[in-house]
Amino acid sequence: MRRVLVTGGGSGIGRAIARAFAAEGDAVTICGRRLDALEETAEGHAMTALQADMTDEASVDALFEQPFDVVVANAGIARTAKLVDLSLSDWNETLAVSLTGVFLTFRGALRSMGQGGNMSQGGRLIAIASTASLQGGATLSAYAAAKHGVLGLVRSTAKEVAKAGITCNAICPGFVDTDLAAGAAQGVAKKFGVDEPKAMDMVVAANPMRRLIAPEEVAATALFLASAGAASINGHALSVSGGEI
Length: 245
Known about the structure:
The chain is of the alpha/beta class. It has helices at residues 12-23, 35-42, 57-63, 88-113, 141-161, 179-192, 196-203, 215-225, and strands at residues 3-7, 27-32, 47-51, 70-73, 124-128, 167-173, 237-240. It is built from 8 helices and 7 strands, in the order E-H-E-H-E-H-E-H-E-H-E-H-H-H-E.
């Protein structure tokens, strides 16, 4: 039985990933700022919910009093605005949660793995990045910068840990069927004066399949990267985007 940590496990992609690992019989711990959302994710599933601020060093380090075999750094936020209108506070918050939080999570994970983690199949570090890690996007400068940083962190970490049998990879979804996509559609509807169904069509236009990605599809990808069959996949950015990129 693997010990699995999923950050940002209270909703969306994180919730789907946590429940997928729990269904495999793994010992899953989820964390995030909103304890009520975490407890909702955990309800009916064998998992532990811990409140934590992924931008706070002490809060993150406290999660790793026990080692984990699989660590999924999923917590992140998005702030949309044209660069000329982007506030410094929104820029700093985006990088703090979506990039520094991943750094703190991976650092804590590696330190705990070195203190007695079960490395019989090798440790697994997985970052939930985005297609924004692979390309830019209008009004997404802070988010894209953070996610590009995540990909650089993943690739560098992968080279550092490879000899220890640990892998570090990123999953890069396109628009996923979560509140984030719904919010994007609402923003498009307001900007262009169209109804929300039309706005959603515009949101998914970059996906050749013309649909949102299901959170469970991202979860299945995380399960694969954590499997023994993925032991040689390291430093990779796996796009789950219907062929967007």
